[in-house]
Design goal:
Blueprint lengths: L1 H20 L13 E6 L2 E6 L7 E2 L5 E5 L10 E3 L10 E3 L25 E2 L12 E13 L3 E5 L6 E7 L7 E7 L2 H5 L19 E2 L13 E4 L2 H8 L6 H10 L1 H6 L1 E11 L18 E6 L1 E4 L8 E4 L2 E4 L5 E2 L5 E2 L39 E3 L2 E3 L4 E2 L5 E2 L23 H24 L1
Parallel strand pairs: 11-12
Antiparallel strand pairs: 1-2, 3-16, 4-8, 5-6, 7-15, 8-14, 8-16, 9-13, 9-15, 10-11, 10-14, 17-18, 19-20, 21-22, 23-24
Helix pairs in contact: 3-4
Length: about 450
Amino acid sequence: MRFQFALTLQAIWTGMCHAAMQHYPAAWGHYDVCKSQVYSDEGLTWDYMACQPEAADMTQFLKVSLDPPNITCGDPPETYCALENPYMCNNECDANTEELAHPPQLMFDIEGRNPTTFWQSTTWKKYPKALLVNITLSWNKTIELTDDIVITFESGRPEQMVLEKSLDYGRTWQPYQFYATDCLDAFTMEPKTVQDLSQHTLLDIICTEDYSRGYVWKYDKTVRFEIKDRFALFAGPRLHNMASLYGQLDTTKNLRDFFTITDLRIRLLRPATGATVVDESSLSRYFYAISDIKVQGRCKCNLHANSCVFDKEKLSCECEHNTTGPDCGRCKRSYQGRAWSAGSYLPIPKGTANISRVCDNELLRCQNGGECVSNRCSCPASHTGLLCEKPRCESELGGCKGPESGQASLRPPSLCSVLTLLLAGAALWRETPRRAAAL
């Protein structure tokens, strides 16, 4: 009785601890616990739930690359116009002087410094050849976006730009959104905003003019890709109805994939000019400069992990539910009683873990007479192992040939046995000619 009371207290305490630890990120709900102990008729057992890591600033885990690689200003040193006064062109960019250098890493450093730090391209000195830059952000891991992508420009915002995504580590690319001062002229697309989208057109790729107009960069610095506004099409303007969004993410693969990336690419196609005609006498006015890029998201773990570690320059999920792999995308060895499946957000609030098990009642994988009981193999006395695949005698003294193994050992035949076999053979040999004569 005392033992049962102690188990009950332990279960209550465990539940209270997990409740106290729950978090509620604004965009995606909680799902931060993969399993908890509950008390049942069989005693303390595990209750498994869908789980995912908390959202985080994913820029601290990325690698950035630029194409062309020599597009950063300062090698050789060059002068450019002041950011707020395009007619005062005595500022210098020098890669060999720390306070005058503008390397790519400054797009991801701590904001709030004075003066502001930023990456900067070379100026448009090769006009009329286009000033093209590709900025690629790579995680070597699938990431689920949870908030708006925000790019802060310290130059005028580009007049033409494309944000692209990859789901296969940069092998192929798809556009996320087009940006231009004139969408029809730049991309032959009608201008739209995210407010023009509906639940049925959420996956449409649009061109927006909201973030490209105006040369006054002091106040209009940011370019956005609106993630939360797209969530709101299902969850409501304040994301209160997350059950609706979760239901759509569970049942619509294309929707889930839309918010999933391994890489992002910012294609800068035309810098801000502030006019319809480029002033060829002052090309040092035209360049790109970015002070900050925000990418909020989480490791994709298929709802089988609540933490993601960054080790040896690589992100990987700490998988639960008997799953393994960088994204918890397959069953652990010997836990393949049924096919692997991602977890599910539904039913709210715990979801469904779809745990990988050793066996189940539909696919009986237990060997040597073992029976599947509560998704574990219950083995006969002669065998052991997850699947009852090992003779128990292997772990006993003397192995499977020892006297206590329960298996007959191989012994040399005794002298009496040999003589008996010889006499029987001789009698059979004498009897054979008689039977032949009688025939």
